[in-house]
């Protein structure tokens, strides 16, 4: 690592730690207010990302929205992204009483009871909507053994900070790149744990091509492959941030693997069903979705991927 890069990585890490302490040193309403201010400033500064988000909305919806409606939609989605960051930083401080009052996690637990009662795990397919971080933390706090998979970051200090942040919130994380990852995931699923996964991004290598938002999207096969290998269902989970700041989680009907069918056909079927449900939610509430992902889901597979 060059000295310049080392210096930049340390500065990035220092800024993150400072903002983390600030957010956690404020009452929740003030930290959310700060998040909204950051969103306003970012909206003014990150004009390229904002223009890109608006272009993506037009790509998906055509002329459904006027320019004013389009700008409002993207502004709302940008603010939701900032508030999701605040939620992630404060996740360890959310008490069970707060989660019970401001989310419908008890309803979610009841919906998942048949699966957990059978001693079976599940793959929870959660879209980049609302505050997916709160959903994972709430589930873990209320007795659902949720774990996740994360990709190592380029900045090693940021990587360690992210691992610590998730551990602080109680969400167990496996790192992508582990040669034993598949075996570990399948073992956990068979033991009754829940893998939380975000499938609504483009994968750079050959995946599962499915129709999505009017085009073809290249979706990672891991979600369906893990479900099939472990013999557990995929359960789509849609998360929404309500106008009053509360969170609502919608558990969709389970998608079971069909072990009697050919593997590739079954993986394609399950992936398509999950993405159809996510697409329906995005079309109903586009202001809740993350339109700014660098791994834009509708980009061609052979495009270079930014990290």
Question: What can you tell me about this protein's structure?
Answer:
The protein is an alpha/beta fold. It has one domain (3-288). The protein is built from 11 helices and 8 strands. It has helices spanning 3-25, 28-45, 47-61, 67-90, 96-102, 105-117, 132-141, 156-169, 181-190, 222-230, 263-284; strands at 122-126, 146-150, 172-175, 194-197, 208-212, 215-219, 234-241, 247-251. The strands form 2 sheets. It has a 6-stranded mixed β-sheet with strand order 3-2-4-1-7-8, with helices on both faces. A two-stranded antiparallel ribbon has the order 5-6. Strand 2 (146-150), helix 8 and strand 3 (172-175) form a beta-alpha-beta unit. The longest helix has 24 residues, at 67-90. The model is unreliable at 303-307 (pLDDT under 50).
């Amino acid at each position: 690592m060059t000295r310049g890069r080392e210096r930049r990585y340390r500065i990035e890490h220092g800024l993150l730690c400072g903002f983390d302490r600030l957010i956690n040193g404020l009452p929740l309403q003030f930290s959310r207010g700060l998040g909204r201010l950051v969103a306003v400033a970012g909206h003014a500064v990150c004009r390229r990302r904002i223009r890109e988000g608006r272009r993506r909305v037009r790509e998906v919806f055509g002329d459904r929205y006027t320019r004013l409606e389009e700008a409002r939609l993207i502004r709302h989605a940008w603010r939701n992204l900032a508030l999701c960051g605040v939620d992630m930083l404060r996740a360890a401080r959310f008490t069970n009483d707060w989660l019970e009052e401001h989310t419908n996690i008890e309803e979610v637990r009841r919906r998942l009871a048949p699966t957990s009662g059978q001693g079976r795990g599940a793959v929870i397919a959660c879209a980049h909507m609302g505050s997916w971080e709160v959903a994972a933390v709430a589930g873990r706090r209320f007795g659902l053994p949720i774990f996740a998979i994360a990709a190592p970051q380029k900045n090693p200090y940021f990587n360690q900070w992210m691992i610590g942040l998730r551990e602080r919130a109680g969400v167990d994380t496996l790192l992508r790149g582990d040669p034993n990852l598949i075996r570990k995931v399948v073992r956990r699923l068979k033991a009754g744990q829940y893998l939380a996964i975000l499938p609504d991004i483009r994968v750079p290598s050959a995946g599962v091509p499915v129709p999505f938002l009017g085009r073809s999207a290249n979706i990672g096969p891991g979600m369906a492959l893990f479900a099939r290998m472990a013999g557990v269902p995929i359960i789509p989970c849609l998360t929404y941030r309500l106008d009053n700041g509360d969170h609502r989680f919608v558990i969709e009907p389970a998608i079971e693997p069909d072990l009697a069918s050919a593997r590739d056909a079954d993986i394609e079927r399950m992936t398509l069903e999950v993405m159809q449900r996510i697409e329906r939610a995005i079309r109903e509430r586009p202001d809740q979705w993350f339109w700014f992902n660098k791994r834009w889901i509708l980009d061609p597979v052979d495009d270079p991927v930014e990290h």
